[in-house]
């Protein structure tokens, strides 16, 4: 298990991974099955998204009308930019501040 995950986020991951693939993912839906409040659930979802364990997009219908949220949960962190690599020599460069 990733040590970057808090106990709350680990519980959220286990909950999300246990839900069926066709489950209607909403904060309101999670509040029905969890004791945590809206703020706690949103905070955990945001944390998991920031760590790469979750991605979410809002689909668009005809004419640009907002559609449903599309949520993907990953067992291991998924980089939002899988082809992005930092050049090796970039890590050795230290910025200089000029006053």
List the helices and strands and how they pair.
Layout: H1 7-18, H2 27-33, H3 38-50, E1 54-60, E2 66-73
Helix pairs in contact: 1-3
Q: What helical percentage do the residues reach?
A: 25-40%
| Strand order, largest beta sheet | 1-2
Give the uncertain stretches in residue-range form.
none
Number of strands: 2
Strand content: 15-25%
Please identify the top-level CATH class of the domain at 7-73: Mainly Alpha
What's the number of helices?
Answer: 3
Overall pLDDT score = 80
If you compute it from the alpha carbons, what radius of gyration comes out, rounded to the nearest whole angstrom?
18 Å
Q: What is the distance, rounded to the nearest whole angstrom, between the alpha carbons of the first and last residues?
A: 45 Å
Strand-pairing-aware structural class: alpha+beta
In the CATH scheme, what's the topology name of the domain at 7-73? Arc Repressor Mutant, subunit A
Backbone shape: globular
Largest sheet: 2 strands, antiparallel
Order of helices and strands: HHHEE
Write structural notes for this entry.
The chain has 99 residues and is α+β, with helices and mostly antiparallel strands. The protein has a domain at 7-73: Arc Repressor Mutant, subunit A (Orthogonal Bundle). 32% of the residues lie in helices and 15% in strands. The chain is built from three helices and two strands; from the N terminus they run H-H-H-E-E. It has helices at residues 7-18, 27-33, 38-50; strands at residues 54-60, 66-73. The protein has a two-stranded antiparallel sheet. Helix 1 (7-18) crosses helix 3. It is globular. The chain starts with 6 loop residues before the first helix and ends in a 26-residue tail after the last strand.
